[in-house]
Design a protein that fits this description.
43% of the residues lie in helices and 14% in strands. It contains 10 helices and 10 strands.
Length: 300
C-alpha cells in the first residue's frame, strides 16, 4: 500500500493523538524520539501503546511509531513496549547503514513471536540520512536489506547538525545546498534500486502551504511518492499533490491500452511522442497508485 502522507504526532500527548485520528493523513507517526523529552519516555510509551490498542482498525489510517535511534539505550524499551500494540510499522531514525535496519528487523521478529503476531507483519520506514556516515553507506542497501523495509526517507535537519552546518538551504535561492541535494538523490536512487517507497522530507515552514505544495510537486516529478508532515494542516496538501489527476489517469490508460493493442512492440507513437517500456512502466505505476487511493477512499 502506497502511503502519500505521514503525519508526526508527539507520543506524549494523548490529546494530539486523539485529534490526529480525524486528520486526512494516510499514516500517523507516533513519535517517541525528537518530540519527547527523556524524562517523559515512559509516559509516552504507555500513551502510544494505549493508542495502538484502542485503534485496532487501521483500514483508513495506519499507525507507525518512530522509536529512538538503535544505538541509544531507549530503542529496545521503545520496541518492547509498542510491539504489544501491533503497530503497522516502525520508523527507524539516525540509521548508519543497512546493517542497522537488519538488526531492527531481528528485534521485530523476536517481538512478533512474543506477541503472537504474524512474522514479518511489522514494516520499517528508514530515515536514511541523519548522520554524516549514512551518506557513505547507501551501497549497503544493495548488498541485502530486510524485506520489512518498505519505505525510505531522508533528513535535512539532523543531517545539517551532524555536518556542523548553520543552515541547509542557500540564502539567496532557498534551495537545499549541495550535501542535502546529494542526500535526497541517494535516498531516491537507493529506494528505487531496492523497490521500496521513496518518501519526501519534512517541510519545516508549516504555515507556508503554498511552498509545501510546490515542494511536493517537485518531489513527485523527481520520483518520490509521498511526504512527511509535521503539522496537521499539511496532510491535505500532500495528499492532493501525490494524487494523480483525471488527465494523468486518462493518459496513463491510453498508454497501457496502446501497448496492449500492439503486443511485442517496444516503441509506440502517441500524440506526436515516441513511447517505450519506461513510459509503460510509469503508466502502470500511476494507475496502481490511483487504484489504491480509490480503494482507500471507498472504505471511508
Amino acid at each position: 500500500m502506497i502511503i502519500r502522507s505521514w503525519l508526526f504526532v508527539p507520543g506524549d500527548s494523548e490529546r494530539k493523538m486523539q485529534k490526529a485520528r480525524d486528520n486526512e493523513a494516510d499514516a500517523l507517526i507516533l513519535d517517541l524520539e525528537d518530540a519527547v523529552s527523556d524524562d517523559r519516555q515512559e509516559i509516552a510509551r504507555e500513551l502510544v501503546l494505549d493508542c495502538l490498542r484502542e485503534r485496532a482498525d487501521r483500514s483508513r489510517q495506519q499507525l507507525w511509531v518512530r522509536v529512538n535511534p538503535l544505538d541509544s539505550p531507549m530503542a529496545l524499551p521503545d520496541l518492547a513496549a509498542v510491539m504489544q500494540g501491533a503497530p503497522d510499522g516502525i520508523v527507524l531514525p539516525k540509521v548508519y547503514s543497512a546493517h542497522d535496519v537488519n538488526v531492527c528487523a531481528n528485534y521485530l521478529s523476536a517481538l512478533e513471536a512474543r506477541e503472537g503476531l504474524e512474522q514479518g507483519s511489522t514494516r520499517i520506514l528508514v530515515v536514511a540520512t541523519e548522520t554524516a556516515a549514512s551518506l557513505l553507506g547507501f551501497h549497503t542497501y544493495l548488498d541485502g536489506v530486510t524485506e520489512r523495509m518498505t519505505a525510505m526517507t531522508w533528513g535535512a535537519e539532523d543531517l545539517s547538525a551532524a555536518l556542523g552546518a548553520s543552515d541547509n538551504r542557500h540564502p539567496a535561492s532557498g534551495a537545499y545546498d549541495d550535501p542535502y541535494l546529494m542526500a535526497k538523490s541517494f535516498c531516491l536512487a537507493a529506494a528505487r534500486a531496492v523497490d521500496v517507497q521513496p518518501v519526501g522530507v519534512v517541510y519545516v515552514s508549516y504555515r507556508d502551504l503554498d511552498g509545501l505544495a510546490r515542494e511536493c510537486l517537485h518531489d513527485r516529478r523527481a520520483g518520490f511518492v509521498g511526504k512527511i508532515a509535521i503539522h496537521p494542516a499539511q496532510s491535505r496538501v500532500i495528499n492532493d499533490a501525490f494524487t494523480p489527476g483525471e488527465d494523468e489517469i486518462a493518459h496513463a490508460r491510453r498508454v497501457v491500452e496502446l501497448f496492449e493493442a500492439n503486443p511485442g512492440v517496444g516503441t509506440v507513437g502517441l500524440d506526436g511522442r515516441m513511447l517505450d517500456m519506461p513510459h509503460l512502466k510509469q503508466a502502470r505505476t500511476l494507475l496502481e497508485l490511483a487504484g489504491q487511493i480509490r480503494a482507500r477512499e471507498a472504505a471511508l
